[in-house]
Amino acid sequence: MRAMARELGVSHNLLNVRFGKKSQLWKASVDWRLKEAAREVELAFDPSHPPEEQLRDLIHRFCRWAIINSDIVAMSHLEGREPSWRLDYMTESFTLPFQRRLQDLLEQVGSGTALRPIDSGALLALLVHGVGSYFALAPMHDRLLPDLPGDGAANPSPEDRADAMARFLLAGLFSA
């Protein structure tokens, strides 16, 4: 906390008075970051649209979300490795509420459309730890699959890659 106060150019006491314990500062930081990041994906849960359209939009939004929120994916990898109060906090405050909404949406879509059965936890893992990891671990992926020189088709943008991943996931979901 002292190093953070120094970097921010504020008094160490200011952080202590405002947040108390280091854990409270961590929670406030996570709350701010995850709530900010969730806005774009949350727009997919628009009840004025049919459930299948919401699910398709959600998958596309989440894949695009992973490009600019790779820090959150990295944090979920780090915190998800071992049981801790931080993992419990993230799960209870953010992951489970989102997963419940996703599960409800999958059930709605499945009742009216040929949808390959998958539970919301598995789909969420594919999105966060599959698509998300692709962007969070970009240096590793650049070394494994370096872009080929040439035109845009041979060197796709991150957005093109995210859209391709979304199409792939949706093809699997709707190929029942």
Furnish the topology, listing elements before pairings:
Layout: H1 2-8, H2 12-19, H3 22-42, H4 51-68, H5 70-79, H6 85-112, H7 120-136, H8 138-144, H9 158-173
Helix pairs in contact: 3-4, 3-6, 4-6, 4-7, 4-9, 5-7
In words, what does this structure look like?
- With 176 residues, the chain is mostly helical.
- It has a single domain (40-173), classed as Tetracycline Repressor, domain 2.
- It is 75% helix and 0% strand.
- The chain is built from nine helices and no strands.
- The protein has helices at residues 2-8, 12-19, 22-42, 51-68, 70-79, 85-112, 120-136, 138-144, 158-173.
- Helix 4 runs antiparallel to helix 6 (85-112) and helix 5 packs across helix 7 (120-136).
- It is globular.
- The N and C termini lie far apart (52 Å).
- The model has no long low-confidence stretch (mean pLDDT 88).
